[in-house]
Amino acid sequence: MKLKQKDLLGLEYLSKEEIELIIQTAKPFKNLFTRTVKKVPTLRGKTVVLLFYEPSTRTRTSFELASKRLSADTIGISVPASSVVKGESLIDTVKTIEAMKADFVVIRHSMSGAAHIVSKTISASVINAGDGMHEHPTQGLLDIFTIMEKKGNVKGLNVAIVGDILHSRVARSNIWGLNKLGANVFVVGPATLIPTEIEKLNVEVCHNIDKIINRLDVINILRIQKERQEQNLFPTFEEYSEIFGINSYKLRNAKNDVLIMHPGPMNRGAEISSEVAESKNSVITEQVTNGIAVRMSVLYLLAGGDGGKSETFNS
Amino acid sequence: MEVKVKLLILNGIVCDPSNKFEKKADILIENGKIVNISIKSKKRKLNAKIIDAKGKYVVPGLIDMHTHLREPGREDEETIKTGTRAAAMGGFTTVCSMPNTQPVIDSVSGVKFILTTAKNEGIVNVFPIGAITKGSNGLELAEIGKMKGAGIIAISDDGKSVMNAIIMRRALEYSKMFGLPVISHCEDMNLSANGEINEGYISTVLGLKGIPRQAEEIMVARDIALTELTDGKLHIAHMSTARSVELVRNAKKRGIKVTAETAPHYFSLTDEEIKNTDYNTNTKMNPPLRTIDDINAICKGLSDGTIDCIASDHAPHLIEEKEQEFRVAPFGIIGLETMLPLIITKLVNEKVISFREVIAKLTCNPAKILGLRKGTLSVGSDADVTIIDSKQTKTIEKFESKCKNSPFIGKELTGFATTTIVSGKVVMDGGKIVSD
């Protein structure tokens, strides 16, 4: 099986089968990491441009490693946020990149819809590495990969996403992906950080995690930003932490095998306690490893790779 | 060459809501005035230039009471010349220019500039609207009386709300003396801050900042209350929500002097369009596109008379301004050249309201609100006439406006102006601007 589209702009636009294909294809890539030579020649001669309008360490490094382990050439372009308004337009920038014959453009941008602009402008494959508050599809995919790896399946699992849902592209991608695979999704956070009409995305809204904690199979904890306090979305970090922060006490009634996830970077002591982050239930560092495998899978499949054949990398 | 000062419009269906007149008739124009409307005219003897309007509607020249001509200050986007050409193309013989130019039209000199430029370069009538407050900053009243003397026909801080209720109160009270309506852009700017599109499912899915409908409705309610307090004359600009319509309907029932307009996009498109077009910034306007419930309420408000007028809110922006990330792209779309076909396609052909009712909302209704001696075909009035082919179907692609920021490009619409006549002079004919 192959992917139909040239771009990955969001999990909203993928079918269940396509998500499953990406996940299945990621497995052999992950196995590669335990070998001494972690590299395959699959994308030799291809160029991946990492166009980052927002500072990012882990996503950028992850995409770069994913590309390099597929033997693609990578080039990183960092554009300071100030030049979105003052500098060259996004359209002109990506036209220039296209003229340099890039095969992939991985874009991270602070504004929703930026990846769509790139997709409409150029014929190279576009991978959305996070656009504003819209989607971060590879994060959603790596979260799903991690859940599948640990739980075997996603269908029927109770998954809570906790924190600033309003501003979170990670939350949106997870919601689309998890729902397509049949999970029950809860969003937990202060009423000020839950977006309007989110129930229409088939999620249950909850403001008190105690009420649902004993049913949860997965808790995905989002980073809370200081900026949100300044916007009066909650009174203080301390109060946020007390009500929504995940610590051992809150987990006292949780299932023994509840998975604790976090897309990083963490604010230890704010949305997650160190104890929880370091607990046996935490898969936070594995998410990082899985991120590379999933991104390799996405690059491979968007390049026209056949999902069934990636198994050969296992040999 | 003989100059024909006489113009005879033959065989059209004359529809003049101001005189409750709708039948086949001929119109004779002489020296810029309407001199005769008759069922049978003696064309041979008249030595007049003849326009055959067979199968077409002949209506009073259309009035757009909400136009951004961008001059002075943003002549790269539009000028009085190009904006009035777009108006003529769309069948408008009169436009009312909003004062949020650079600088803001908040003084006599600004008003004089608009009028002089319009006289020299414009091809349709331009009536300036003056600012409510100096610089439209919402802090101090502008010289409303002096601007009235210079020729303004209303006041507005359009683009912004007058956020301070005491200033709005004073504006409503003070403008009463001059019979000037206060045109209110209703938006609680604290509630709408940083907003991009209607707050709802679509804003949630697209990850765009929401503008709650209440940002508009709170101000509609406040301004109605202030109008009740002051007995002033309030006109609500570009109304977009169901609850706003309800507030105006109730206020009118209680005898409060409030009138209202909507714009074609508020009965033509919903916020779904933003998603369907993958963040096309030509779907970004303020107030934002709402939902199907709002469209239904706007249509009801149009049919029951709650909404008095339809105005374009013509807001030109350059391609390079619009072809940016959604958040940084400016609000607004052009509208003069798509307004009439949208009205005929979406309202008349869909049987929301009759042709005659809709023509009233483009002619005598705005004329009455603004105190203009326009919008009628009465004998003796200015010969501003629009001829409409209600059956003509075209795909929207070209514009006389300097800008092309329209969400309707590529859409097939029905009902276009074929001739525009200003004071007896044909300024547009057969889809072409007629130059001297």
Distinctive features:
heterodimer; A: 315 residues; alpha/beta; Rossmann fold; 2 domains; four-stranded parallel beta sheet; 11 helices; B: 436 residues; Urease, subunit C, domain 1; TIM Barrel; nine-stranded mixed beta sheet; 14 helices; 19 strands
What does this structure look like?
The complex is a heterodimer of chains A (315) and B (436). Chain A is built from eleven helices and nine strands. Chain A has 315 residues and is an alpha/beta fold. The longest helix of chain A is centred in the C-terminal third of the chain and has 19 residues, at 284-302. In chain B, helix 4 packs across helix 6, helix 6 (213-230) packs parallel to helix 7 and helix 7 packs parallel to helix 10 (292-303). In chain B, 59% of the residues are buried. Chain B contains 14 helices and 19 strands. The chains are: A alpha/beta (315), B alpha/beta (436).
How many structural domains does the protein architecture of chain B include?
2
Radius of gyration of chain B: 21 Å
Quick one: how many beta strands of chain B? 19
The CATH level-2 architecture of the largest domain in chain A is identified as: 3-Layer(aba) Sandwich
How can the largest sheet of chain B be summarized?
A: 9 strands, mixed
**How would you name the CATH homologous superfamily of the largest domain in chain A?**
Aspartate/ornithine carbamoyltransferase
Helix fraction of chain B, binned, reads 25-40%
- CATH fold group of the largest domain in chain A: Rossmann fold
Q: What top-tier CATH class of the largest domain in chain A fits best?
A: Alpha Beta
N-to-C terminal Cα separation of chain B, in Å? 14 Å
Quote the average pLDDT of chain B.
96
Radius of gyration of chain A: 19 Å
